[in-house]
Design brief:
single chain, alpha/beta, Rossmann fold, five-stranded parallel beta sheet, 9 helices, 13% strand, globular
Length: 301
Amino acid sequence: MADTGPRLLFISGSPRTHTCEALIDLLEQGARSAGAQAERFVLSKKRISPCTGCEGCRKTGTCVLADAGSVQFVDDDYLELKALLEKVDAVALVSPLYFAGPPAQLKAVFDRFQPNWVQRYVLGYEVSVKRPAQLFVIGCGGDAHGYAPLAGIAKSALAVAGFTLEKVNNFIGFLAPCDVPDFPDEEDFDQYAQPQLVQLKRATAKQEAFVQHAIDAGSAFARYAAKKEQANALAEQLAALEAELAALNAEGDDVLAPDAVIMPPRAHSVSDDPAGDAKAGIDLDYRRLIKSGTPKPETEE
């Protein structure tokens, strides 16, 4: 049976193949359990050349570094990533924290989204429906200045690439399995001091919680992406129906002469304010007749 769930792309933004991929393994596990299709793009195994700021994309909306016919052509993995981003329903970006921001390799990816910005704001291409994205932040101890700069840069870059950063997940402190200390068997307890055992117990318990949290987050992200896809489809259907209604409502507009005036109906009720009625054009005799329940006689020609 072919997969029919949402197509998710997991991007590892680290220059190393270690903790980011370990977290992606768990996220993918949860996503697949929810019926999603998962692919990954690992920057430590790819090469994305940095933007040179040449502004060659301002004329065509395409990157000259990716144009095989250009003298500036660079044979890297940008086109592979571009194709993946165009076909998926949602993106999960996993990144370590480097001085509160992204690593150089990930920043290079963001900067290569410049043609997307040109397409939207310079060439005026039609904006497609935004797809959801989430950011998963990892790091041994975090950064004293937080991760707001990383989230802001990712949000800005993903927006021009057609995605909305809808959630930032804090996984600072998550470790790759090979970095998690083993808790000793009970018969080996005498080889450790009590504070060491307590520390090891806390470390293993914290990692177990991270693991379950990652699996749950991957499943939730997949289910959210599926619902978002349904909502976008319904929104498109609603927009199409509204356009049809507008077209039906416009039919017959040319029956009236261009200068025809449609008079408003005469008031059939009056208020308790004679002065106000007089200003509104309701004569006082008519007001008294209405109040008494007597119909106003027809005016003789």
